[in-house]
Design a protein that fits this description.
Helix content of chain B: over 70%
Largest sheet of chain B: 2 strands, antiparallel
Shape of chain A: globular
Strand order of the largest sheet of chain B: 1-2
Order of helices and strands of chain B: HHEEHHHHHHHHHHHHHHHHHHH
Distance between the termini of chain B: 47 Å
Radius of gyration of chain A: 22 Å
Shape of chain B: globular
Number of helices of chain A: 19
Structural class of chain A: mainly alpha
Number of strands of chain A: 4
Order of helices and strands of chain A: HHHEEHHHHHHHHEEHHHHHHHH
Number of strands of chain B: 2
Largest interface: A-B, 30 and 31 residues
Largest sheet of chain A: 2 strands, antiparallel
Oligomer: heterodimer
Distance between the termini of chain A: 8 Å
Helix content of chain A: over 70%
Strand content of chain A: under 5%
């Protein structure tokens, strides 16, 4: 199916609903006195869009808008992920005290616009479209990061994010121009055809790929494009950090897989893929993966601020995620999709506890969690322990299953990949030390006089319960999610 | 009911955990009694299991198999055979007794008992699981409550001990996970079912891998996987050089948790080797048994005994004595003789009961004197005669005095090893002398001699403490006189296990 602009609209209603919600929020922001209701409207809009997305799931795929974006299970999967992230983050923001100072209407508008950008990131099959969608997400993210008024950290983070983002997207578009020069097309399918024909210079293709990786890598946060993340994570309002850490990361994974698999690689027998034109980018990414996870974990060891620690842990998780990419087969990709969902749940959960504690005590440093379990916050403390142990990859939590799939993909491939697996397990052990360090502070240390009590609102409690139950549930019964991760590996290519 | 007996034994404590969590946290006694109540059914079912276990059948019994995640061939698959039955019984017994040994806990009572019951489920699950994935989940499930139990209710250096235990064990288990995956992908069709993996044991390659340094050592796929699994299990045993978490964890853990650690958790290491390494990777087992497993076991015996001799802290002494005694288990199973391997599994059971007693006894004196310095006591026998009597039984059993259970298993191990590796048998036997040395010396310093003025007023051991000790004492005596009560359970399966490896011995 190759649809023109008009025909495409019929498959475009999730995006249309989301856009409508965004516009509605802008208008209502002017009219409504009770700003909090904007959050609920955003949730309803996202839910409607989610419903529409799910309706489309499993339908025949096709190119929309003259081969600008594509409709297939893969893109729908990531649309669902970004909508889920948006809903959960809006839910999280409802009671967040930090955000009281922020202009509510703009905040929700920008958040949903970022989600809309992620829709396009997941579905673009044209280099130009990929670039534009990435920029849409980036620009809204810069503003969201700096949205705390009169807050130096927040402004500094936004500026840092902007500068790094500018450099990264600059090199990405430069790399894209190389690809265009070599293949004569911006369209993924035509790039793929041109590469298969041969005659492309090996080194220039490699250079182009590395340059493009700068843009994607900055979204997924892998080394050496990670420098912005600790400062941005620390400076941004916590719900925004949570959103960036899961949704931005997921969209980056989507655009990365879409570009590196259907466009740059070739399908082989039995769910395997082959790299073309002799450019061994998987080996390059293998190295990047090892360095990323090791650096992330080692840097996280000494962090005093929990958000900063989670930033480094996010870098480490980006390294784990890449394990699924380098094996160049569908097992690995399936593991990545699975991990993206699991990571979304557990990481949002961890950030939610950060929000709850910061609202009650005004502290984000790990020392502020001293004896949390013994000062009226046993439930958030237990939930935090669940999320952190899940991030470590311990059963019976969802994080274990996610890591299990990644390890399985790597071990199945054997050979040099076993080294990657060994590096990854050593990293898991290292990561336990800092995750357990937080758990230690919450449970094993006792509160001192004057440590404030921690209380939660209704919305936060409900969300916390939901996320922690899901973390345990997906750790024990993950058949359905694995099934959908598998189903979502359908790329529309012809 | 009898069809799902193992599931009931495993999940009763979990149900207990939920009940305990629902009880009001102020009513301490209610929580204690509820916890005790939920450990009774597994114990009773254990007695039933003991009575109905088919002693002739070497295969699996009381099997339950339900598909869990069919897309990946993962089943809920549990069962017992001669390798695991004694451990299941030991777990049920010690869990029940340790609830009573925990009566004195008065800080965060609800959390303590809830975690304890969760730990109980994890332990039982490890011994009954026959699906590798399930096994791994239970194996890791145990870590979390253990971390908190040591970390929150432990002694002064609890935080250090808890995280050390956690990191060591996690390191071992992730290595094990890689090995499990390697086995999974080698099997055809891919399966986590241990019985099917065992049936395919011939498939796992033994040709040296073309990767340095494995080619230098002549190691194939089997050997590498064997080693990865072994390190995972050796950390639990704990075998030298992975044993350093043990003294820390034991010294800091509350009494009941020390008992569980020594009585049940250490056995998981040797149990895992018997359950997984031996039948699944027989060639590697045969190649590595003598110079690696046997020698390491012997080294453990002597090294642990020497370390124990140097300790000033009574609990640390008992902890190192565990390192030494677990050495006998490793040595015995490396011999592949009927006596050796039966002795090894019997030693696992006996060590559980004897060391359980020892830690309970240390707890009794610590609760009264609030320290454990061996040199700080003296002449306790005059103040606490009953306590001293029970202690003497436990110490002599640990020493291997004829008529008590420790003797039988150590002699069986040495008999079995003598037939294969006389040198290791001689060295192992010398460990008995060292053991006698440090234990007798300890008795002399603590219980005999002039009474220390400070402790003239210590109260005698009370009824609750005796209640936790007497059942173990009775078992120690019975098994010293009539070891067949347990040996009969083991023999058929262990002989079959031996037969799986013996053809591969060169």
């Amino acid at each position: 199916m190759d649809l023109n602009n008009f025909e495409s609209l019929k498959f475009f209603y999730p995006e249309a609903i989301l856009t409508g919600t965004i516009l509605l929020l802008v208008v209502l922001d002017l009219i409504l006195k009770f700003k909090r209701s904007l959050g609920y409207i955003a949730i309803v809009g996202c839910m409607l869009s989610l419903w529409a997305t799910l309706e489309l799931y499993g339908t025949l795929g096709g190119w929309l808008f003259h081969r600008m974006i594509v409709l297939d299970n893969f893109s729908l999967f990531f649309k669902v992920v970004s909508l889920l992230a948006a809903v959960l983050v809006v839910w999280m923001s409802l009671e967040c005290r930090e955000l009281q100072a922020v202009h509510q209407g703009e905040y929700y508008t920008l958040l949903l616009t970022a989600a809309l950008g992620m829709f396009f990131m997941a579905s673009s099959v044209n280099l130009l479209m990929a670039y534009l969608s990435l920029e849409l997400v980036s620009l809204t993210s810069y503003v969201l990061t700096g949205s705390l008024p009169h807050n130096r950290r927040s402004s500094e983070a936004a500026l840092k994010y902007l500068i790094y983002g500018g450099v990264a997207s600059g090199s990405m578009i430069y790399g894209m121009s190389w690809i265009f020069g070599m293949t004569g097309s911006l369209d993924y399918a035509q790039i793929s055809a041109a590469l298969l024909e041969g005659g492309v210079h090996r080194l220039s293709l490699f250079m182009a790929l590395v340059l493009i990786l700068a843009g994607f890598g900055y979204k997924i946060v892998f080394v050496p494009f990670h420098m912005w993340s600790p400062d941005v994570y620390q400076g941004a309002p916590t719900p925004v950090t949570a959103f960036l850490s899961v949704a931005s990361n997921a969209a980056g994974v989507a655009i990365l897989i879409r570009f590196f698999f259907p466009a740059i690689s070739r399908v082989a027998e039995g769910g395997d893929w082959l790299y073309v034109a002799g450019v061994e980018w998987p080996h390059f990414l293998l190295f990047v993966s090892m360095v990323t996870m090791t650096l992330g974990n080692l840097c996280a060891l000494n962090q005093q601020n929990l958000k900063r620690m989670l930033a480094y842990s996010g870098i480490a998780h980006a390294g784990y995620l890449l394990m699924g990419l380098v094996v160049l087969n569908n097992d690995g990709l399936r593991a990545m999709l699975f991990y993206v969902v699991v990571y979304l749940i557990m990481n949002l959960g961890a950030f939610l506890v950060v929000v709850i504690v910061a609202d009650a005590t005004g502290r984000e440093d790990i020392e502020g969690y001293r004896g949390l379990a013994w000062r009226g916050a046993a439930i958030p403390a237990v939930c935090m322990a669940i999320f952190l142990f899940s991030l470590t990859g311990l059963p019976p939590f969802a994080g274990f299953v996610g890591k299990f799939f990644l390890f399985a993909a790597v071990i199945k491939q054997g050979g040099v990949f076993v080294i990657l697996a060994v590096v990854a397990i050593l990293n898991s052990v290292i990561s336990l030390y800092y995750y357990a360090g937080v758990v230690k502070t919450m449970f094993l240390d006792f509160p001192e006089a004057g440590d404030p009590k921690v209380e939660m609102g209704v919305n936060s409690s409900a969300l916390l319960g939901f996320l922690s139950c899901l973390t345990v549930l997906l750790g024990l019964y993950w058949g359905p999610l694995a099934f959908y991760a598998n189903q979502s590996l359908r790329f529309f290519m012809k | 009911m009898t069809d799902n007996i193992l599931s009931y034994m495993t999940f009763f404590p979990l149900a207990g955990m939920i009940v305990v969590l629902l009880l009001p946290s102020k009513s301490h006694n209610l929580i204690r009694w509820a916890s005790a109540l939920f450990t009774v059914p597994p114990l009773l079912l254990g007695v039933w299991l003991y009575a109905n276990f088919d002693r002739i059948n070497p295969g699996l019994q009381f099997v339950e198999k339900i598909p869990w995640i069919p897309a990946y061939n993962i089943d809920y698959f549990v069962g017992v055979d001669g390798i695991s039955i004694s451990m299941v019984l030991l777990t049920a017994l010690l869990s029940f007794l340790c609830i009573f040994a925990s009566w004195g806990i008065d800080k965060g009572v609800k959390g303590y008992f809830a975690l304890f019951l969760l730990l109980d489920t994890g332990m039982m699950g490890v011994f009954v699981a026959l699906d590798f994935f399930l096994f791994y989940i239970f194996w890791e499930l145990m870590l979390l409550p253990m971390y908190f139990l040591i970390g929150i209710w432990g002694g002064p250096r609890r935080e250090y001990a808890a995280i050390k235990f956690f990191l060591y064990t996690l390191f071992g288990s992730v290595l094990m996970l890689l090995a499990i995956l390697a086995l999974y992908f080698t099997s055809e069709p891919h399966t986590f079912d241990m019985t099917r993996l065992i049936a395919q044991s011939g498939k796992y390659g033994v040709q040296p891998l073309a990767i340095w340094p494995f080619d230098q050592w002549g190691w194939g796929f089997q050997h590498v996987v064997w080693m990865a699994l072994f390190i995972g299990f050796a950390i639990k045993i704990p075998a030298f050089p992975f044993h350093t978490w043990l003294p820390d964890a034991h010294v800091e853990a509350p009494t009941a948790i020390s008992v569980i650690l020594a009585g049940v958790l250490l056995k998981m290491g040797t149990y895992g080797i018997l359950r997984v390494n031996f039948p699944m990777l027989p060639q590697a087992t045969a190649d590595l048994a003598y110079w690696f497993l046997g020698a390491l076991g012997t080294f453990n015996i002597i090294y642990g005994a020497l370390c124990a001799m140097a300790q000033k802290d009574l609990k640390k002494l008992v902890a190192y004595s565990s390192v030494s005694h677990m050495g006998y288990v490793m040595l015995g199973m490396a011999s592949f003789t009927t006596q050796g391997i039966n002795g090894a599994v019997l030693q696992m059971f006996n060590h559980g009961t004897i060391t359980g007693m020892l830690f309970l006894l240390v707890g009794v004196i610590y609760d009264r004197a609030h320290h454990r310095e061996i040199e700080g006591f003296g002449g306790i026998a005059a103040v606490m005669p009953v306590y001293t009597g029970v202690t003497a039984v436990a110490f002599f059993a640990s020493m291997g005095l004829p008529g008590l259970s420790g003797f039988i298993s150590e002699v069986l191990v040495l008999l079995g090893v003598w037939q294969k590796y006389p040198i290791l048998a001689i060295l192992g036997a010398s460990g008995v002398i060292l053991t006698a040395g440090y234990l007798l010396w300890t008795i002399q310093r603590i219980y005999l001699g002039p009474t220390n003025e400070k402790y003239k007023t210590l109260s005698e051991i009370n009824g609750r403490e005796l209640f936790t000790l007497i059942p173990l004492g009775i078992i120690v005596v019975i098994l010293g006189v009539y070891p067949h009560a347990v040996l009969d359970l083991l023999r058929a399966s262990l002989d079959q296990l031996n037969q799986a490896v013996i053809p591969h011995l060169s």
